[in-house]
Target: 5-bromo-4-chloroindolyl phosphate hydrolysis family protein
Amino acid sequence: MIQILLLALILGALYYVIRQLGAAEAKAPRLHARPAQKRLARAPAPRAAQPPAPAAAPPPKEALPPITAQANRTLTRGAQQVEELLRIASAVADQEVARRVGELCDTAERITDKIRQRPAALPLVQRHYDYYLQTAHRLMRQYEQFMSSPVYTKEMEFQAKRIEHALVGLQGSFLKALRKLLNDELVEVEVEVNTLEHMMRGESEPAQPMEARRMNS
Model:
């Protein structure tokens, strides 16, 4: 009987210990493994934008000499006439006529550029502006009217052909005016070179004593 009581006490004690251990385990916080984090590669810091290199300054343009009001009016009127000739040339169906008018305009612009650089040379080609350029402008306006007319007679065709042939002679007159300016420019250059050579020869001669200079004089 005593043995049975001891066995019951032992079993009870074990049961109590097991319950206490279970309760302690339930109260203990559960630890979770932290998921491995992917290490993100750090993006390189953006490079500061470099300011563009300053563009090289264009060489200063040579200032043109002053020009009189009358000469400026002459050149301005001539430029307007050339612009009108170019417009007519772009509308002409005949490519050969358009080419001839284009050559006239190119020569006229070269003449004007020369006068802008050397206004004193305008009298050499005044007839070019007062007659030849105006005549070319007037004839080509008439030619344009002939070509756009709804009625095209034999007489109109005859006069149109004459105008086409006259373009060749006008180009010769334009070139003659341009040659005058070029020749005048060459003369001016020759004078400058001669003066320079004379000055250089004078500086290169050895200095003479005062007595020698008196004897030579």
Observations:
- Confidence is low (pLDDT under 50) at residues 28-41.
- DSSP finds six helices and no strands in the chain.
- Residues 69-199 form a domain with the Single alpha-helices involved in coiled-coils or other helix-helix interfaces fold (CATH 1.20.5).
